[in-house]
Amino acid sequence: MGKAILAIDQGTTSSRALVFDIDGNQLGLGQHELTQHFPNNGWVEHDADEIWSTTLASCQAAMIAANIQTADILCIGITNQRESTVIWDRSTGNPIHMAIVWQDRRTSDYCAALKRQQDTISDIQDKTGLLLDPYFSATKIRWILDNVPDARARANRGELAFGTIDSWLLWKLTGGKSHFTDATNASRTMLFNIRSQCWDEDLLTLFEVPASVLPEVKDCSAAFGTTESSHFGAPIPITGMIGDQQSAAFGQGCFQQGMAKSTYGTGSFLLLNTGTDVLNSQNQLLSTVAYRLNGEPTYAIEGSIFMAGATMQWIRDGLKLIEDAADSEALAEQSRNDLSVYLIPAFTGLGAPYWDPDARGALLGMTRDTGIKEVVTAALMSVCYQTKDLVEAIAADGAQLSTLRVDGGMVKNNYLLQKLADVLDAEVHRPAITETTALGAAYMAGLHQGVFDSLDAIAAKWRLERAFTPQRDEDWRSRQYAGWQDGVARIRSQR
Ligand code: ADP
């Protein structure tokens, strides 16, 4: 048995663990679903203890599936759902409240009130790269400290610890010995200055978060601690930590400025490497730390789409037009070729670059011969046009996309990827290994242990499975995209 790396991928709907060999081949997988709690309108919570127990069980299952012993594991890398917030008691290791999940909107009134202060908003964007929103950790921490009896006093006495999911898992894995986070996860808290790479005093004051609860911020590839022997029978070093979207970009080898990855799952996240530049987006995109190695941050610009695979779920479960999302490919291949039907999936409003929460969806451009095939095709095309919206916004902010590396459940669909290349006028590359999120964390951990000696060595491991090259001309592209933009304009809540 050769040496292996264990990658923990703690996500919103499940905890997973994957064992990779040192060439990045997957040897085993363990996975456990995570219970979603919706205690109130707009509230989303996870049980932090369940996050931990499902993670540990997944690690053990992955090792059994890979048929390896603890001694074979060189190191552990952690990647995780970002922004979700846990506060626990330092002496007992018990959470003082449920984890507040990134999707949770309970602090939106507070954010709306703060938004009236224009100076505050631009200061937040300048320092953190983020937009003032309940999504990020800062207002979630404040909420827990204000709503759990005695929490603020205990925090001030240094009795409580805050962590995003990476820090929480690290604390549990090390038996309470390590309280660290990495620069990518820190960059999603809205308390971390991504330029100076420090927790920001002014933001801590603004959001009323005592510095005593914060973890120390390390590089993504660092000595984070070793696992308590009771978990796996022997200690294993934990040497990689990175937020999930950044990890996918790392696993895709996006190390050069202009390289981008887009993950197409339920929603979609596009990250483009901007090198040493922090772009202050004028188009409501986010700037974030892509990764930090040897104290040197590399930045990315990030845009997200709410409805990607979720649109296919609606086509399947809501409209019952197809039985399986995969059927969409064959139907689209047989559809009328003019692509004149547009589906604007603004079911929960429009995200970047429109940010119109009150916009609603529409199906436009139908004629008497429009059928299931055309509607299904329009659903796939909506993913391409929404990506184009992000790429246009990124370009307006001064960054250029060279090629797009894709991953996530939707990218099995060849029709989708060909149309994506056509709409973007860019090469779209699908890698051989599509478990890029876990792979990024494994690479990060291995980098510290000397398994890989450089980013070039990791980049060389990336293997193309299939390239999709633009096949349409500029006339077609501008006509198609104009139709989409016209449709979007029709459904905006304010015109
Ligand atoms: P997540 O990680 O967000 O749960 P996945 O990356 O597993 O999502 O991707 C699943 C999504 O991809 C589902 O929404 C599904 O509808 C969609 N999907 C899966 N296969 C295809 C396909 N062949 N064509 C189009 N959509 C697909």
Kindly describe this structure.
The model has no long low-confidence stretch (mean pLDDT 95). This protein folds into two domains: 4-245, Nucleotidyltransferase, domain 5 (2-Layer Sandwich); 252-431 and 463-495, 2-Layer Sandwich (Nucleotidyltransferase, domain 5). The longest helix is centred in the last third of the chain and has 25 residues, at 372-396. A seven-stranded mixed beta sheet has the order 17-18-16-15-21-22-23, with helices on both faces. It is built from 17 helices and 23 strands. α10 (244-251) packs across α15 and α12 (327-333) crosses α13 (372-396). The protein has 495 residues and is an alpha+beta fold. It binds adenosine-5'-diphosphate.
Indicate the percent of residues in helices: 25-40%
CATH topology call of the largest domain: Nucleotidyltransferase, domain 5
Tell me the name of the CATH class of the largest domain: Alpha Beta
Report the sheet-strand fraction. 15-25%
Overall geometric form: globular
Instruction: Going across the biggest sheet, name each strand in turn.
Output: 17-18-16-15-21-22-23
Question: What's the CATH H-level homologous superfamily of the largest domain?
Answer: ATPase, nucleotide binding domain
* Category by helix and strand content: alpha+beta
Provide mean pLDDT, rounded.
Answer: 95
Instruction: Name the bound molecules.
Output: adenosine-5'-diphosphate
Structural Rg: 22 Å
Low-confidence stretches: none
| Biggest sheet record | 7 strands, mixed
Number of domains: 2
Distance between the termini: 63 Å
Provide a count of the helices. 17
Count of strand segments: 23
Reported CATH architecture of the largest domain? 2-Layer Sandwich
